[in-house]
Amino acid sequence: MSIKKGLTILLAGASVLTSSLSFAAEEVNVYSYRQPFLIDPMMKEFTAETGIKVNILFAKKGLIERIKREGQLSTADIMLTSDFSRLALFTEDGLAQPVESKILDKNIPAKFQGENKQWFALTSRTRNIYSSVERVGPAPDITYQDLATPAFKGKVCMRSGKHPYNVSLLASIIAHEGEAKAKTWLEGLKANLARKPQGNDRAQVKAVKEGLCDYALTNSYYLGKMLNDPKQVSWAESVHINFPNQATTGTHMNVSGVALVKHAPHKENAIKLMEFLSGDVAQKMYAEINYEYPVKTGVKASELVASWGEFKEDEIKLSEVAAQHKAAIKLLDEVKFDL
Amino acid sequence: MISKSFNPYKLLPWAVTCILLSPVLAIFLNAFSFDESGSFEHLLNTVLPTYISNSVLVIVSVVLISIVFALPCAWFVACCEFPTRQKLQWILMLPLAMPPYIVAIVYTDLLDFAGPVQLALRGWFGWQSIDDYYFPDIRTLFGASFILALSLFPYLYLLLRGAFLTQSAGLFQAARTLGLSPYRAFWRVSIPLSRSAMAVGISLIAMETLGDFATVNYFAVHTLTTAIYDTWLELGSLTTAAKISSLMLLVLVILISLENYSRRKQQVYQRNSSGSTDLRFYLTGWKKWGVLLFTWSLLGLSLFIPIGTLIYYAFHYFSESLNDQLFSYTLNSLWLAFLVAILALLVALIVNFYQRLSPGVFAKSSIRLSSLGYAVPGTVVAIGVLIPLTSLDLLLNDLLIKWDVSPVGLIFSGSLVILVLGYLVRFSAIAVGSVDSSLVQVPPSLDLASRTLGNGPAKTLWRVNIPLIKKGLLTAFILVFIESMKELPAALLLRPFNFETLATYVYQYVSDEMIEYAALPALMIIALGLIPFIVVNRLLEQKH
Questions:
Q1: How far away is chain B from the Cα of A247, in angstroms, using its nearest Cα?
Q2: Which of A123, B70, B82, B198 is disulfide-compatible with B153, CB 3.0–4.6 A?
Q3: B115 vs A289, which has greater pLDDT?
Q4: Using N-to-C axis directions, what is the helix angle for A179-192 and A325-334, rounded to 10°?
């Protein structure tokens, strides 16, 4: 047996043993920043519909870096992100490839598509200010800018400024008003915090219930999720959801989305999966399981979300917000926001 | 020592060291590449000084609290006699099986405004709102240090107890004969003789603390680890993250070397391994009750309260948290931890025996270097491991294409190989340290005797040294096994598709403040960590 042949057999054997390289007839590999409870049911549906097996790796940090290192050998086909900044980072680093698909174009409005169709948003959500039912009542006229005014001293709770949702909000304020004004706002906001930024979005609502603060900065869909958790329902019932900046720029929007990996080994299947995620079935699941706003026109938000009413969205381009992402992080360091 | 004949045992330790060091080196190399973003200067001018002082404060607090916990416990159990001592000597190790991030969440839940403790206080005293009374906030630097110390102190306890037990009883007896009180004998004989164990224990705790992200982050305490995450994952600058990591490592290496240097002339060997029990101080009266109160309340805090709370949650959310996947995740965790523990033991034997056979600067540094990964936060290790393994994969595939063989893809970085290596890089230090501290107590005269009697080095290791350090080997195995069961950040990032461990499964819920759903798998992690402890302990007891 020649060395070459021996090597082939040996390596073939080795690759059969490694789980990332199974030779199933039809499959697609997904790297997901989004969580299993939401994604798993959709993938099940997709496999039932198409017969294509979906392999997933879930993580909250570092997936982009892993793909970067894996280079042209990466077995990842699709990247799912839970926020816009990661979509931007992913495409900026040249890790995505454009997708031409009539179905995607039909389902996803142009404002939810990246440059050269390198990424597609799948859902959108708002950054809301929740107010205490007991001590404040509804606050329909509230603005993000209000949170930095002296009247709110010691009344505001929020998670780490470095969390992508907050970075994105700050980036949008930089994009609207410039860095200097954004810095003043950030300093005012820090001065008004009831406690050092900590916990996640739900923990802020809990803090309002406990009387630590009167206002919490939190994404829209958490309210729906808390209402469906036996322990957290009382937190949710202690707050009103308000859509800020209705008289001015509109409420800040973030999106979750999908991109096709540059070296995707199962390109066709990957595009099928992207189309599926933009279709009625998956869009409805996003709306019903996670209370997000579907991007596909015609798919309705869940009954609960619809009950929060219509509101004015911030129409600024996502790419303009993304451009201020790094500036926002540096600003957070400068004012020592989390410390 | 340079020998003319080729000796493979001299290559092996270096091969092992190189493999374990390659991720750390990869990070170091990145630190020296040019960074156009100016992120490092930005950090230095803004938050880095606070991060540094927080890191130092957390490490110092965790180490000090751990000493306060571990030192008395180890001495009581090794040198005194009181009721429940037999049980305590192994139960005191069990808090190691508790993942600190879970303990942190349990205590935050308990001590919260809406938690049972404050609820009860308000009920008793008729307080209405948060303004009516003062309650300490657990989400502080001290709170984080306390929680970390609760699950890390057993490292120190374990090593100190071992040292106290194997210390020559004759020396202690001599001290007593010369008129020292037990108290002074403790300070002037026991403590100086246990310095090596103390040093190893403290450096393990310091490294583990430095590498922790989950716990400090949960308590909103920002350390150097925060800086690494921010710069690398948010600002996208691996170079700056690598610079900070390298700084961290450098400080650690300096500290450990200083300690070693100060101990260079000290030689402590066990002369009397048959520790006689009648030398123990029999405690009576308030001393007895004091010792019982101290040891058992420490266990209450570190073990019984968190486990009790988890059992309560698991019971109330049992049907929601029990599913068929739980079994396969448990199996994954188990065999992975087992494999890593065996490999770490091999690593520890190789580098330690190399040092014993050919002592010198090179051997010493191979021990130090192979342990560096422990102080690196899990996610950084993960990327550190990705760099050499993906390069290896790319190289291999290029070669295969050149030789007209079909390429094989990511056989190293896309498989469990990378996960196992990541764990080894992080946890070999524990095995190496544990084996090191038991091996230094075996007098070299035994080796010389064996060699004089015609045994080769290999046979001497196998027949003389290994049997003498069996206990140390078992301890090393258990510690690495438990750490691997608990490991989270590297597992999250390095695992192949569709692969979950108990820890990654727990994290799904914990990250959404849904600890109740994670209670059952969290209890599995703890239980599976406890079992080997108990089994090994039984085995050791039967022998005596």
A1: 32
A2: B70
A3: A289
A4: 50
